Amino acid sequence: MKEYEKVCIVCPVGCRLTITEDSNSNNGYRVEGNNCPRGEKYGIKEVTNPTRVLTTTVKISGAHHDRIPVISSDGLPKKKLFECMEIINDVNIVAPIKAGDVIVEDILDTGVDIVASRSMDKQ
Ligand code: SF4
User: Fold this and answer.
1) Domain coordinates of the chain in residue numbers?
2) Which pLDDT belongs to residue 26?
3) Which of 32, 35, 42, 45 to mutate to test ligand 1, by most ligand atoms within 8 A of the CB atom?
4) Distance from the alpha carbon of residue 81 to the mean position of ligand 1, in angstroms
5) Model pTM?
6) Are 98 and 119 in contact (CB under 8 A)?
7) What is the percent of the chain where pLDDT is above 90?
8) DSSP designation for 91
9) Which protein residue has the closest C-alpha to ligand 1 atom 2?
10) How far is ligand 1, taken at its centre, from the CA of residue 92, in Å?
11) 85-120 pLDDT, tens per residue?
């Protein structure tokens, strides 16, 4: 029976979770140490398909800055983050850009977009 120790990062409390394989439970795991149901969901996801929201920057032309901050619209599988960064590093967009504009749609067929997290006017 496998057991994992994780810290829940859903809120600042940071509960220490113990996630144990449990064939008797509905979802195959038993989670202990969580102060709320979100911790159970996070713990199971963390040992089955861990994801992270990606924040980074992309190159922009015709603006006051050379790069613009972007964020993923949802969590991306941790194992695909490096590959996502390779795609994002090749992107070069042109001003003006509005916060929320989709910069890369459905990156790596994950169903997650990379969107601008701020606006940037033309220079
Ligand atoms: S289990 Fe609930 S209270 Fe604890 S860190 Fe996660 S979200 Fe916060």
Assistant:
1) 3-48, 55-116
2) 84
3) 35
4) 24
5) 0.83
6) yes
7) 95
8) -
9) 36
10) 38
11) 999 999 999 999 999 999 999 999 999 999 999 999
